[in-house]
């Protein structure tokens, strides 16, 4: 059976030819008009990029563009798809750990990179490969150890990833004058190294910031999520390990970036409160709500609290989406996990109660285009249940998962020689001038 890199080496020339042929045949065809509102509206809905590691079907052209700040969605109604597969499909088809029922993120990475479902052996080989690459350079450990615990975990995360660029295989190959055709090889190595090292970075940040003692060593016999859970201090809890497998799998999909430092930049984008930091904000909001109206509050009290949030000019965190127009399937996957593992948990019940109440209120308020919950409305309640209660840390786990989607895309960017993306901007004066009298 081929390794991931061997399989990629087979797939890349085929894909290169396919792109060449598509450009030859369709290259000069128009993709439709661009309207002024799309310039003011953050390029929403503007077809401007080709998704490479996600889906090769019609949906790839609907993917939202802003590389560092948005999720990749195949179809706004159907929801997220990984290489054309829905979340329930990948849960069914990807290999599981012995005794586990959630997909292994190793398999998801294989799927994102190749478009194919790997065998269990191929996934187990990836687990071993990542374990072997997991150590981080000593100076990066020192950078993290010297961060004050008051520095937000996401800032520490981004710092550490930027520092990893010191050992970048791509930077070295580039400096040595590697041919453009060979770019994907060192990019693949960087991607594998990055993913492999994230548990040590995330674990170190968690333990440093919250005083949780020393990191255990990586166990080369265990899968990625097991090691991540162990580094955080939850390796003895099989249900938490399962949660990590699901969590890393469903948070992964994303547009690409150019280099390791751009993944660090992506982390800074993810750390915005209306984006990935929303999972922190949801827990902050829920905790404030519980403090104000109690743990078993009535629907009426919850409604009043939601309205007071809106009337205060704030958003209801965890609801709405720039692209999706229905309940986020990643929310559904996490809800099903909760129904299986923690059906009677009070916080989970509150999350469910809010699910019944908030969409109606957002519809009545009449502004949000999507009144349904997104991925961030649920994840914090699951982590809290298992004792990972430090909400400021949550987006770090989100960022670990995102590396899978970003790097899968990055490898293909290099394989296909994708350009830097440079959307053009206009001033309002220029808009007025262009359309004067039209
Ligand atoms: N609560 C209150 N108002 C909301 C809202 C919410 N959850 N979602 C949207 N709105 C408001 C917007 O603020 C905007 O108001 P304005 O006209 O006064 O500026 C109006 O409804 C229209 O917004 P939209 O087109 O529906 O959404 P958008 O694409 O501009 O923004 C998002 C999308 C996610 C930023 C927004 O829905 C939001 O702020 N949600 C809460 C924060 C959140 O959960 N973010 C995480 C999203 C998932 C992720 O990226 N990780």
Automatic annotation (TrEMBL):
Single GO term (MF): acyltransferase activity, acyl groups converted into alkyl on transfer
PROSITE patterns (UniProt xref): CITRATE_SYNTHASE
Residue ranges the record marks as coiled coil: none
A cellular component annotation (GO) from this entry: mitochondrial matrix
Gene3D superfamilies assigned to the protein according to its UniProt record, in alphabetical order: Citrate Synthase, domain 1, Cytochrome P450-Terp, domain 2
GO biological process, one term: carbohydrate metabolic process
Active-site residue numbers: 275, 321, 376
Record bears the keyword Transferase: yes
Entry-linked InterPro entries: Citrate_synth-like_lrg_a-sub, Citrate_synth-like_sm_a-sub, Citrate_synthase, Citrate_synthase_AS, Citrate_synthase_euk, Citrate_synthase_sf
Alphabetical UniProt keywords: Transferase
NCBIfam families: cit_synth_euk, PRK09569.1
Family: Belongs to the citrate synthase family.
Name this polypeptide is given: Citrate synthase
């Amino acid at each position: 059976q081929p390794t991931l890199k061997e399989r990629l080496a087979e797939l890349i020339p085929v894909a290169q030819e396919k792109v060449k042929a598509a450009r030859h045949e369709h290259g000069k065809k128009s993709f439709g008009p661009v309207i002024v509102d799309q310039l003011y509206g953050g390029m929403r809905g503007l077809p401007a990029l080709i998704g490479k590691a996600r889906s090769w079907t019609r949906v790839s052209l609907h993917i939202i563009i802003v590389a560092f700040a948005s999720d990749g969605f195949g179809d706004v109604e159907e929801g997220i798809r990984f290489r054309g597969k829905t979340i329930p499909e990948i849960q069914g088809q990807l290999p599981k750990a012995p005794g586990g029922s959630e997909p292994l993120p190793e398999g998801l990475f294989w799927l994102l990179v190749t478009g194919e479902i790997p065998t269990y052996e191929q996934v187990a080989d990836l687990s071993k490969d990542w374990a072997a690459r997991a150590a981080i350079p000593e100076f990066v450990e020192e950078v993290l150890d010297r961060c004050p615990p008051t520095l937000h975990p996401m800032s520490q995360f981004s710092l550490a990833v930027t520092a990893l660029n010191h050992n970048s295989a791509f930077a070295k190959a580039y400096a040595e004058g590697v041919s453009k055709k060979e770019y994907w090889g060192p990019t693949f190595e960087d991607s594998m190294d990055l993913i492999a090292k994230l548990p040590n970075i995330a674990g170190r940040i968690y333990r440093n910031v919250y005083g949780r003692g020393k990191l255990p060593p990586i166990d080369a016999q265990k899968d990625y999520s097991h090691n991540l859970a162990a580094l955080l201090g939850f390796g003895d809890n099989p249900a938490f390990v399962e949660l990590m497998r699901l969590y890393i799998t469903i948070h992964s999909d994303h547009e690409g970036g150019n280099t390791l430092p751009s993944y660090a930049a992506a982390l800074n984008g993810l750390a915005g409160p209306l984006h990935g930091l929303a999972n922190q904000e949801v827990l902050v909001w829920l905790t404030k709500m519980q403090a104000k109206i109690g743990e078993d509050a009535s629907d009426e009290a919850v409604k009043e609290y939601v309205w007071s949030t809106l009337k205060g000019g704030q958003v209801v965190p965890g609801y709405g989406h720039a692209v999706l127009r229905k309940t986020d399937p990643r929310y559904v996957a996490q809800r099903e996990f909760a129904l299986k593992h923690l059906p009677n948990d009070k916080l989970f019940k509150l999350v469910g109660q809010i699910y019944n109440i908030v969409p109606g209120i957002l519809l009545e308020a009449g502004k949000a285009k999507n009144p349904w919950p997104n991925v961030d409305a649920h994840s914090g309640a699951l982590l809290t249940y298992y004792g990972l209660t430090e909400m400021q840390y949550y987006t770090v786990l989100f960022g670990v998962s995102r590396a899978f989607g970003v790097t899968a895309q990055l490898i293909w960017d290099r394989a296909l020689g994708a350009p830097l993306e440079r959307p053009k901007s206009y001033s309002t004066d220029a808009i007025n001038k262009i359309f004067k009298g039209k």
